[in-house]
Amino acid sequence: MELTGPADGEDETEDAADLFRVVGRQLRLLRERAGLTQRELGERLGYSEELIRSLERGRRTPQPEFLDAADELLGAGGLLAAAKEDVARARARARVKHPAWFRDYAKLEAEAVEVHEYGSHAVPGLLQTEAHARALFAMRIPLLDEATIEQRVASRLDRQALLTRWPAPILTCIIEESVLRRPIGGEVVHKEQLETLLRLGRLRSLELQVMPTRRDEHAGMGGPFILLTPKSRPQVAYLEVQNISRLVTEPDEVRILAARYGSIRAQALTPPESLAAIKELLGEA
């Protein structure tokens, strides 16, 4: 077997990861100098503790608005804000390492104006915590090596920039109750995931619904799918099962899936009822 060097783009990706880790270390040192915990910093900036933790570890791409706000709050004197251009260049050079079968969808999702997802067997990737995502990748069969797991986790977390992008896209998610009851990663990880869903469900840009198990009619028995509307382009759909994916662009097929999604939404709990249901599950966790 012939050994080859890194594929095109791998050096750029590693350079970007190194930069994000450096910025993360600077953020941690400035936070600690200010005497703030990760939770306290997140609360003051309007971000979650989980996001602050991921940024400090270099697992998330720091967004320009975050760097500006953190720089001012922590009295960094422009140290963090000055990294914005370097971060933007590094991210542009780096190739996001999604699996090949997912890359076309990921490109469309990054600039989508609408995303609607029905999750019948897993929490949608856009809503997963870092620990939950890592647990999912770690249990893949055949097993993934540690480097690939970390790479996939970082790519999944990077997609979540969509949740805080402005102008905000229209986002809706419907998750099966059975998915929310499965303690992926153990009880601690499971509880953190439910807490994150509760927080995200309160975002103005996201409508989160739970499909209760006790329903005698269910329009979603055909499995999970995503409806996505790229900017200035027609709506498409994305199907994935057992690492086999399909991007659906045929108008009649997309129309049928859109009608099906409407029926599932009507059968699911309303957003307020769904948040109450998640709170109840948290009490049981």
Protein architecture, described:
This protein is of the alpha/beta class and 285 residues long. The chain contains twelve helices and six strands. The protein has helices at 10-33, 38-45, 49-56, 64-73, 84-93, 103-110, 130-138, 146-159, 177-181, 187-200, 251-267, 271-284, and strands at 112-119, 170-176, 206-211, 225-230, 236-241, 244-248. The chain has a six-stranded mixed sheet. Strand 5 and strand 6 (244-248) form a beta hairpin. The chain is globular and about 60 Å long. The relative contact order is 0.11.
Features:
285 residues, 49% helix, alpha/beta, 6 strands, six-stranded mixed sheet, disordered N terminus
N-to-C SSE string, H for helix and E for strand: HHHHHHEHHEHHEEEEHH
Low-confidence stretches: 1-10
Strand content: 5-15%
Question: What's the main sheet like?
Answer: 6 strands, mixed
> Helical segment tally?
12
Query: Which sequence of strands runs across the widest sheet?
Result: 3-2-1-4-5-6
Tell me, rounded to a whole number, the average pLDDT: 89
What is the CA-based Rg, rounded?
A: 20 Å
Distance between the termini: 50 Å
- Would you count the extended β strands for me? 6
Structural class from helices and strands?
A: alpha/beta
Q: How much helix is in the residues?
A: 40-55%
Shape: globular
How would you summarize the topology of this molecule?
Blueprint lengths: L9 H24 L4 H8 L3 H8 L7 H10 L10 H10 L9 H8 L1 E8 L10 H9 L7 H14 L10 E7 H5 L5 H14 L5 E6 L13 E6 L5 E6 L2 E5 L2 H17 L3 H14 L1
Parallel strand pairs: 1-2, 2-3
Antiparallel strand pairs: 1-4, 4-5, 5-6
Helix pairs in contact: 1-5, 2-3, 7-8, 10-12
